[in-house]
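Notebook entry, structure prediction.
Reason for the run: the old model in the group folder had no record of what sequence produced it. Starting over properly, with the input documented here first.
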Amino acid sequence: METIVLGVEPRVIKKKDAEKLRKNGIVPAVIYHKGEETIPVSVNEIALKKLVHSAESHIIDLQFPDGRIKRSFIKQVQFHPVTDRIIHTDFQLFAADEVIELEVPVSVTGDSIGVEKGGKLQIIRHALTIKGKPEDMPDHLIVDVTALEIGHSIHVREIPMTAYAGLVISDDPDTPVITILASKKETEAVAEVPETPAS
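New structure, fully documented this time:
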């Protein structure tokens, strides 16, 4: 997994200061680690947006003005309900040997049988929560859809993790991740087939 350096500035929490920061393109954030004091900081909105909307997950080295670096990952992001701008972010620190839970984007590989028959591939869960050591975390979780037929789905329990030694998916095993939908034309054709009257 790639490590990205992100500059942070310490901040003092004051009333209405968060709104002033946002108006200047700065996002209020906090850094926390179990058993340690939470550190309020601020980060550049554009730099943060690139990380949040990336197709891959990252380990983030938070760099302070004095040169200190704290290794972390994004634990939570809050968006404005109307504008969808990032309004707050939580960064969680970790030690090298610590087991963490990280949201990893889902990536599809293979040509689905169902798609070749006219179906439409739909990714239901674009990211899954993976549990393991940071050094083992992948940029994305690759799911092979080659054998997926129309009307069928791949659930969390059906994703092989042999390529990801030491990692497990924390999400509910029965959660559907990817499905192949029937095309509109096929659905309409089925609906138009007249029922055979009972003899």
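Summary: The first strand starts at residue 3 and ends at 10.
The old model has been moved to the deprecated folder.
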